[in-house]
Amino acid sequence: MDTKKTVIVTGFEPFGEHKVNASWSAVQELEKLGLGEDIHLLVKEIPVEYKAVSELLPSLWKQYKPELVVHVGVSGMATSVTLEQCGHNHGYNRLDNCNFCPYSQCCIDQGPDCIMSVIDMDSVCKIVNTSRLGVAFSVSKDAGRYLCDYTYYTSLYLGNRRCAFVHVPPLGKRHTAGDLGRALQAAILEMLKMLKDQRNHGQDGNHC
Q1: How confident is the model at residue 203 (pLDDT cuts 50, 70, 90)?
Q2: What is the domain count for the chain?
Q3: Is residue 35's pLDDT more than 90?
Q4: Which Gene3D superfamilies match (predicted)?
Q5: Which residues form the domain of 146?
Q6: Is residue 206 part of a domain?
Q7: Active site residue 167
Q8: Is 148 one of the annotated active-site residues of the chain?
Q9: Of 86, 107, 148, 163, catalytic
Q10: pTM (global) more than 0.85
Q11: Is 190 annotated in the active site?
């Protein structure tokens, strides 16, 4: 019997000025590193398309029943690896790679305005910033109202908040794909420890 827990980590395809999307490059590096023998790591590249995200995420949650889903996106403004605490339901008026945006400009009809991850990103950030990775981490509560935020909110909604989102800077700004892959590994391992502690203590994390 396979007792391994599944962790899904996604990155995005190229879009706009990001001809090579650092998020997917970082996730591919993470795949090489793995998350230890007890974790089945599954990686996926996600289209920068609202409709594709809305179709793909429910199937991922249903099929694999993951312990945790971590979405990774690139931010041209980021100078550090940024741990996003929450996702937002409204304000999606930027066109995607198919020149489409939701008519309602929201993720989930009648969903809450904001959903917080069960993971305390401030605590994760403090721990990984004491490591010797040579990569700085920070925390944000605004993932940007584009496909990153849209994906995060949708996944938080579907997965009972057992989800995280990480923004990485573009490649070459300060770090290589290898640097970012190691940073993702360190952060996700801490997130998994936190989930285990919450389970042992009967906690369910943050509320909006």
Answers
A1: low
A2: 1
A3: yes
A4: Peptidase C15, pyroglutamyl peptidase I-like (3.40.630.20)
A5: 5-201
A6: no
A7: yes
A8: yes
A9: 148
A10: yes
A11: no
